[in-house]
Amino acid sequence: MKLSINKAINDGRVKSIRLIATIGCALLLTAGCASNQRVSTEPLLAAEQAIDNAERARVSQYAAAELMQAREILGLAKVALTKKDLINANRLAQQSQVTAQLAFAHAELIKAEQINTEIKQSIEQLKQEMQRNRDANL
């Protein structure tokens, strides 16, 4: 019986199965590690584009603090990327993008509020002029 077990172990088919299993495990481990370490510059590019869009819209006139914060966070994301801290780099890049979008929205809100104030002032001036015209015609 001992002889037949040794013969089966030394059989070419068992060796092939072991080799295939070993290679399969190695490939799975390599693929798993590679997918975790893949560098994605997409979040960084999206953050840079959001900041560029905000700068083109002259957001710094209305929301300079938020735009500066977005730039600082993007800088931290780039530092994290150079340190191969990909999870933190992506998180910071996304935070930078959202902060730049917030700055853009805040600037748009301020502009809209200014326009609203101007319209209210114009309406009030028109009301006063209409009242003067009524008073003059009486």
Features:
138 residues; mainly alpha; 90% helix
Structure description:
- With 138 residues, the protein is mainly α.
- The chain is 90% helix and 0% strand.
- α3 packs parallel to α5 (86-137).
- The model has no long low-confidence stretch (mean pLDDT 81).
Question: How would you summarize what this structure contains?
Answer:
By secondary structure, the chain is an all-alpha fold. The protein contains five helices and no strands. The mean pLDDT is 81.
One letter per element, helices H and strands E, the order comes to: HHHHH
Q: Kindly, what is the distance between the CA atoms of the first and last residues, rounded to a whole number of angstroms?
A: 127 Å
- Percentage of helical residues? over 70%
Strand content: under 5%
Categorize the overall geometry. Answer: rod-shaped
Q: Helical element count?
A: 5
Largest sheet: none
Number of E-state strands: 0
Query: Which structural category fits the helices and strands?
Result: mainly alpha
Rg estimate, integer Å: 33 Å
Unreliably modeled segments? none
What is the residue-averaged pLDDT?
81
Helix-strand layout with pairing:
Layout: H1 2-10, H2 12-36, H3 42-56, H4 60-82, H5 86-137
Helix pairs in contact: 3-4, 3-5, 4-5
